[in-house]
Please model this.
Amino acid sequence: MILDLTPVLPALVVAVTGVLLLLAQAFTPKGKPAPFAPLAIAGLLAALSLVVRTLAGAGRGSILAGAVAADDFALFLEILILGVAIVSVLLAPSYLRSAGIERGEYYALLLFSVVGMLGLVSSLELISLFVALEIMSVALYAMAGMQRGRVQSQEAALKYFITGAFASAFFLYGVALLYGVSGSTSLARIAATLGSGAGSGPMVVLAAGLLLVGFGFKVGAVPFHMWTPDVYEGSPTTVTAFMAAGVKAAAFGAFLRVFFGALSSAAHDWQPAIAVLAGMTMVVGNLGALAQSNLKRMLAFSSIAHAGYLLTAFVAMPEAAASSVLFYLVGYAAVNLGSFGAIAALAKDGKEPQTLDDLAGLSERRPALAAALTVFLISLMGVPVSAGFVGKFYLFSAAVSTGYVALAILGVLMSVVSAYYYLRVVVVMYMHEPAGADTWAELSWGARIALAVAVLVTLGLGVYPLPVLELARQATASL
Model:
């Protein structure tokens, strides 16, 4: 019997491209530029074409004793992750040159983290899922510390590593308890055991709690969020953009598969806990962002708040919850890549906008960029005709459908609170006079393409969300 490796081919292509990038750096003559970004994009596009081909019906199924799958759920998230990676690579060259860290290992690490993300959303077995989680995380720890000359970058890498180790430990303890209850680490077998009533009681609740802590660290949910502002601020801005979009998509994908797959029969035990986490996360994230003048820290607290919005859907039935989360992740990825990408695109000679005052009068000097950043901010706020509005509508509707009306109302109120700190940026860009000479860079072609794609996705999902929503619903059916 011939082993069909179609489900893992995209990850293999990305991994091989990462190795080729390291070889390209090693064998490029000194003083000559190596084609890092084009090679990385070529590998990602090749992987994306394989995923699309599988989505069309060629090579679906699972391999390795049911440990890895190419179902609609995995394919939807794989397309999203590869799209995030392509946009991240387009944003990178000009920023890396400005920061003095344009090296092949940056792109290689990015691709290796993508390999982990692809494994995370396609794993049907907890040990495979943990390995994928570590592949993603270890590469990101190194990327966070790429600017070795900056103390903040080293601090970000160290904090990310330490908190990531704690998250991994909690996750592994949860896996061990589930194995003890069910005798398996397969999600399908765990679901069958718990569904039959053979495995139930305090041990299952404790296992779900430990897994919830592990995933809570990864998605930045309160009270496991303390690393997020420091890591987002200290990391290179293009790394922050990639983390904010890619890690959220991969982590929430695995979160959905484990809790609505293996642990669905114990939902009455873990859904109230998630409701509490969602409420705390929305409140702390938005109130924390109100006090920030640093742009990256403000967007970091905003990211925490949006993790809370996403968690509100977890209290609903699996079909409504998963489809609304998947749809929201697409729009969320676009606006975060655009927001952090706009900051990175202005970097010049190792300097980039850090505070609100640095964006004063941006509409006069970079009108197109100011308009794009405004689109991203109003989408994060949830203004109609944007992806954020439609996404929040479906998230909160899912919560209301199962009786968590108070949680949905809290989400709406926190969205109103967020208007203050998002609109404050818009006011500074359009109503404050520029301070001093124009020291920011002209946008590179890669950054222009990346930001244009992000704007089109943000507005497109706000005006015509149906195609992506239908794909999300189709993907949910395979959970």
Notes: The chain has a mean pLDDT of 89. The chain has one domain: 6-476. The CA atoms of residues 278 and 311 lie 5 Å apart.
